[in-house]
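FAQ

Q: What does a record look like?
A: Structure on top, sequence underneath. For example:
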């Protein structure tokens, strides 16, 4: 009896242990497709991601791009700044004639450029643009220099930019640069510059550091006539030896060595991400097996499109879902985001999907002059070509805003949509699905956004519904024969 008890206890122990391992194993299999490379591997700028939100109301449109650090202090600093701008814009909206705004919606764009000094120190140059109907747009730039190792903002107060008693030399140097500039000399107001420079409140918050240069970024109208735009004066560090403080000179000279090291790290990552994402797909729900009996039925083609990405996690997860149906999608990417996540764009192409141009900063193209419009498009094309080797054939204008005049300037084929899921507004998987059920037909182009979790959550049911109703998921170029 005693032996029996020990025997049963032993057997139970084995069964429980085995069961536990089987559970662990299964659990691992079912969740493995979601295991993704960590955040820091994903962004080209270590430890920094890019956030984008777009709002489209009856009277105004807002596009906001801003960096995300996953740090309370720095994210607080940036969101306070962004919220302040948005509040000012919305106050202005309230004071304007609403009927007029319904006809000519106002726009707010918040965008930023990123300049990397070394692994820790980045300059973020924000631009806010307010467009109120037909008035001249209001534009302002703000610089944040940030040390992400200590989560601090660096200003000339915290880490002085200049050596003592060098202001007069600096003044002459910048003035000379303006007067020698082919772009700005004709529009330069030296008296305005003098007032700006010697203003006791001048804290040089327009200064940023770009590799081996110090850059002074001025607002439109600040020291030049409006036609000069927002001037940038670049001064090489070698010209600033007697002016720039030792602190910054040291950081910049360290940066010279660092530049060569970074490229190798980025290239290494790509292949790994591709194999991991494709090898772990669950097979149990693969509808492949059913295709044989359905193959006699002609499939109805549709193009499912995703705007405003790539997203650091969701885009790849969407590709995994499409793999289950041998389906292909089209991604209308923002150049500013491709710049952050180049290897995600590369992965999209490698897995047979299509990338289209959705401009650099999500601006309403019908409100831009020709050169800014081409800049938005060409910068995005270069970023996509650089990361994927392929130039986009089609373009989707932000907010779907396009007119005959704009079309003439654009070389790419312009693609809109016929099924508007409003996913960015409802964030409701059920509602997204019911709009698709109501509006989809053969040759439909469905508009979704791969930057929202709710859209990703809605997708399994959407794909299953469409698949069961005999739809085939193809790229835009396939659907439209480009
Ligand atoms: Ni968009």
């Amino acid at each position: 009896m005693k032996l029996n008890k020990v025997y049963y206890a032993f057997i139970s122990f084995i069964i429980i242990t085995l069961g536990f391992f089987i559970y662990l194993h299964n659990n691992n299999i079912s969740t493995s497709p979601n295991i993704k490379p960590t955040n820091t591997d994903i962004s080209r700028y270590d430890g920094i991601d890019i956030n984008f939100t777009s709002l489209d109301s009856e009277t105004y449109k807002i596009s906001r791009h801003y960096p995300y650090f996953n740090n309370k202090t720095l994210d607080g600093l940036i969101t306070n700044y962004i919220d302040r701008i948005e509040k000012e814009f919305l106050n202005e909206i309230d004071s304007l004639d609403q009927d007029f705004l319904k006809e000519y919606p106002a726009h707010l764009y918040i965008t930023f450029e990123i300049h990397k000094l070394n692994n820790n120190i980045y300059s973020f140059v924000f631009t806010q643009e307010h467009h109120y109907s037909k008035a001249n747009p209001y534009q302002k730039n703000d610089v944040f220099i940030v040390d992400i190792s200590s989560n601090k903002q660096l200003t000339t107060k915290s880490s002085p930019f200049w050596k003592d008693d060098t202001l007069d030399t600096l003044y002459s140097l910048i003035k000379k640069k303006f007067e020698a500039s082919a772009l700005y000399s004709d529009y330069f107001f030296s008296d305005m510059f003098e007032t700006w420079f010697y203003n006791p409140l001048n804290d040089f918050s327009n200064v940023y550091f770009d590799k081996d240069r110090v850059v002074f970024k001025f607002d439109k109208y600040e020291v030049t006539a409006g036609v000069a735009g927002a001037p940038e004066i670049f001064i090489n560090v070698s010209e600033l030896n007697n002016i720039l403080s030792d602190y910054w000179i040291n950081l910049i000279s360290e940066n010279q060595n660092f530049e060569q090291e970074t490229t190798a790290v980025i290239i290494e990552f790509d292949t790994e991400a591709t194999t991991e994402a494709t090898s772990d797909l669950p097979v149990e729900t693969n509808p492949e097996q059913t295709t044989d009996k359905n193959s006699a039925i002609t499939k109805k083609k549709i193009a499912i499109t995703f705007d405003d990405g790539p997203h650091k996690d969701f885009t790849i997860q969407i590709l995994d879902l499409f793999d289950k149906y041998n389906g292909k999608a089209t991604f209308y990417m923002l150049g500013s985001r491709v710049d952050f996540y180049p290897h995600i764009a590369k992965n999209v192409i490698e897995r047979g999907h299509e990338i289209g141009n959705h401009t650099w900063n999500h601006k309403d193209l019908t409100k831009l002059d020709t050169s800014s419009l081409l800049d938005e498009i060409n910068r995005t094309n270069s970023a996509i070509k650089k990361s994927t080797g392929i130039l986009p054939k089609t373009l989707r204008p932000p907010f779907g805003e396009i007119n005959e005049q704009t079309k003439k300037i654009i070389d790419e084929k312009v693609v809109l949509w016929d099924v508007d899921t409003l996913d960015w507004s409802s964030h409701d998987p059920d509602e997204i699905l019911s709009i698709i059920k109501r509006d989809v037909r053969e040759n439909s182009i469905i508009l979704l956004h791969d930057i929202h979790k709710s859209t990703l959550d809605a997708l399994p049911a959407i794909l299953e519904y469409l698949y069961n109703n005999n739809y085939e998921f193809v790229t835009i170029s396939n659907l439209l024969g480009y």
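Q: Is there anything notable about this one?
A: The chain has a mean pLDDT of 86.
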